[in-house]
Amino acid sequence: RAEETRSQAQNRELARERLAELIRAALVAPKRRVPTKPTLGSQRRRLAAKVERGEVKALRGKVGDDE
Predict the structure, then answer these.
(1) What is the pTM for the complete model shown?
(2) Exposed, middle or buried: residue 15 (CB in 10 Å: 0-12, 13-18, 19+)?
(3) How confident is the model over 27-60, as pLDDT tens digits?
(4) Spatial distance between the Cα atoms of 2 and 19, rounded to a whole number of angstroms
(5) Is residue 51 part of a domain?
């Protein structure tokens, strides 16, 4: 609310200034995010973990009869 001063005219002017500042701030375009790439080491670690996980799942198969 615009009740900073006792004068209605001054309060109106302050409200207009705040609105103008809000509009100016809204017109500024945000900076674009530069996408980054995963490091080579992190890619290798991820793939190694996937291979290891695949081996664990492959070993979950049913055990065959040895008769």
Answers:
(1) 0.46
(2) middle
(3) 999 999 999 999 999 999 999 999 999 999 999 9
(4) 11
(5) no
In this structure, is residue 9 part of a structural domain?
yes
Closest CA to 14 of 53, 51, 22: 22
Say how far apart CA 67 and CA 64 lie, in whole Å. 9
Q: Would you tell me how many other CB atoms lie within 10 Å of the CB of residue 48?
A: 10
pLDDT level of residue 64 (50, 70, 90 thresholds): confident
What radius of gyration do the chain's Cα atoms show? 32
The residue range of the domain holding 4 is 1-29
Residue 50 lies in a domain: no
Among 32, 31, 30, 2, CA closest to 14: 2
